[in-house]
Amino acid sequence: MAFLIGGANSAVSGYDIDNSLRFNDGDSAYLGIDYSASATNRKKWTASFWVKRGVIDPSGSHQYIFGFDGSGNIEEYVQFESSTGYLQFDSRNASGGSSDVYIRTKMLFRDASAWYHIVIAADSTDATEGNRYKVYVNGVQQDLTASTAVPEDYEFFFNETTGTKKIGVAFTSNFYDGYLSEFHFVDGTQYAASVFGETNEDSGIWVPKDCKSDITYGNNGFFLEFKGTGTSQDASGIGADTSGNDNHWAVTNLAATDITTDTPTNNWCTLNPLINSAEDGAISEGNTKLVSGSSSWGHKLGTMGVTNGKWYYEAKVTSSTGAHYVGWQDVQPTQVQLAANPQSDSSGTTIWYTNTANDTTGHLRKNDTDDTAVSNAAIANGEIVGIALDLDSGTKTITIYKDGSAVDSDNTIASGNTGTLVPFIANATSGASIEVNFGNPPYANSSDAADENGYGAFEYAPPSGYYALCTKNLAEFG
């Protein structure tokens, strides 16, 4: 059996989405465009997009998904509000900077393991106030709180010509952090969510539809599938428009490594920002990088857990000093997951670690007992550790690889380890960093190797019969 921590979704659909774009708020990354044509109709528009959130920090800043910052207090944006996690829309013109429209959802968006399909559909010409601005999440129209509702015949700004429109930010700060997939924007028509998705009859899950031919995009409409990896504003770029309008977006601080296969139709494991140790570290790069804070310890668990199957992932050390831990951890319900030293959380812990980077000896710690030295197997800066977990054989094992070669000799999981195993990443030194690759690395590999199902991009080929942690594999082998 396998499960997704936090109840994450994965769409099971006959139509597959191949790519997403990963935003890291620390990179100040965004897409931008200046429309060359006049809006088809500024009173009507629809935005449809899928999001999987990265860092969720209630004490931090809100995150803009898309928006427009014009001159003289003219602005319009959609954002995740920081302290609560609701979706907020704000639009204002030059009249003193006060909001003409201010609407938010009652629903909160706090699950970093889930893909959400969001449709925002606006038509200010409708005589009924409640029909002028609609928000759908996974096909369900949401209850809204409107401090200032949409006035009749209000003209919105995101699809008009003047000024640069942006995806990933609205102004010069508070950048979006997470994944974005299949972004449709329609200029001149208000569409319902059913145009873009449907409920799967077998699973009951909301899934995407192949709908491009059913949409009239209007002059400034676009469809971003994130199939390109180039940084130019053209048909081969990251911001290429495939609607037929050629409204291609300029790229700022995004690279080919930000194009991932973590999508609504194949959800991938990432580090879980909602599970923290007492002395925590910061995660970034779409929840694939961990950097320890000033109190030294920092650890994270993955968003997917397993009790059977054969699974493989990699991690790359990206700091020259410090202790790094990579492996799997038992998460039985009775265990304490908030200890200051997370490698000693319980007798079910099974992890691989090195006391100091560049040491000549690595260590295999098992079941909260003294560690076993492994000659010439310490993890040094730039090296990649592979973790192969076998829960199908009679003797359950973890095999450790360093730069593609198996290095451990004492790798049997004790019989007392009966809970669900979850990927475990930790650093024990202030400022130490490690990047994890469950199949969508935040760094460039020298050669991308997939598992036997064709999923993942690893530096080294997974052992025969081992698979990457994604929902398509979990459905087949988990």
CATH class of the largest domain: Mainly Beta
Q: Which percent range describes the beta-strand content?
A: 35-45%
The total domain count is 2
Largest sheet: 8 strands, antiparallel
Q: What is the share of helical residues? A: under 10%
Mean pLDDT: 87
Structural class: mainly beta
In the CATH hierarchy, what is the architecture of the largest domain at level 2?
Answer: Sandwich
The whole-angstrom Rg is 23 Å
Regarding quaternary structure, what we see is: single chain
Our count of helices gives: 1
Shape: elongated
N→C terminal distance? 5 Å
Poorly predicted spans:
none
State the total count of DSSP E strands.
33
CATH fold-type name of the largest domain: Jelly Rolls
Account of the 3D structure:
It contains one helix and 33 strands. It has two domains: 2-260, Jelly Rolls, CATH 2.60.120; 281-477, SPRY domain (Jelly Rolls, Sandwich). It has one helix spanning 471-477, and strands at 2-4, 20-23, 30-33, 44-53, 63-69, 75-80, 86-92, 101-108, 116-123, 133-137, 140-141, 144-148, 165-167, 178-187, 197-199, 206-208, 222-224, 250-252, 259-260, 281-284, 289-292, 298-301, 304-306, 310-317, 324-330, 350-354, 361-366, 372-375, 384-390, 397-402, 405-406, 421-427, 433-437. The strands form six sheets. Strands 2, 4, 9, 10, 11, 14, 17 and 19 form an eight-stranded antiparallel β-sheet that branches. It is mainly β. A hairpin with a 5-residue loop joins β5 and β6 (75-80). The model has no long low-confidence stretch (mean pLDDT 87).
